[in-house]
What does this fold into?
Amino acid sequence: MFVSFEGPEGAGKSTQIRLLAARLEREGIVHLLTREPGGTDIGGKLRELVLDTRSHMSAMTEFLIYSASRAQLVGEVMRPALERGEVLVCDRYVDSSYAYQGHGRGLDMAQLRAVSEAATGGLTPDLTILLDIDPGLGLGRAARVGEPDRIEQAGLEFHARVREGFLSLAAVEPSRFVTLNGAEAQEPLSEAVWQAVSARWNASRSRDQAGNAHLV
Ligand SMILES: Nc1ncnc2c1ncn2[C@@H]1O[C@H](COP(=O)(O)OP(=O)(O)OP(=O)(O)O)[C@@H](O)[C@H]1O
Ligand SMILES: [Mg+2]
It folds into this structure.
């Protein structure tokens, strides 16, 4: 099962992924965590490039670097984990490109979809947890963590478009997305995340069992 976490800066994605990983650990469910951009040797180098504040970068270049990093991650790490039957938890995936480079930077969505499809071979999450948050609140949280990177430095209007972008992506695919309020406290939020993940997990396992019973 493939679960992605999405949402604006500082929405609590990394925090909730850490809590989910601890829960999966307790339940004895084998899982793998990845983050974008990065997660591979090449991805690490691309991450430095794309977040660097010193050089000007066009929106299309930014998108292509994220896509290159993603292509590497899918082939090297994500598909193998799914083939081993693990639960794969990804900190950002293609929806971030649609929200940031599409809604935020204004690139053509059809082009983004075509390139993303090629980069991922069409690998789509079974479940996407969208942590929604007011961009002012999220950026304020993120700012406490360290120096702002190139994306965090883009203005509040940009981040407001990103947030709306995520919400409209979720509205178009209600069966894949579960949208939660990132402004809530960590504990109730992690409980809601677990409800969503375990419901999908149980559904996919009973589907598998039904499939096996059919084969026997
Ligand atoms: N529910 C919450 N309530 C209050 N603070 C939170 C909550 N969740 C996370 N935080 C804090 O907000 C900050 C950002 O959280 P986190 O790094 O998990 O967000 P993120 O979505 O991964 O951000 P980024 O997009 O920058 O990677 C951290 O300092 C974290 O401790
Ligand atoms: Mg994070």
Remarks:
- The longest helix spans residues 186-215.
- The CA atoms of residues 135 and 159 lie 6 Å apart.
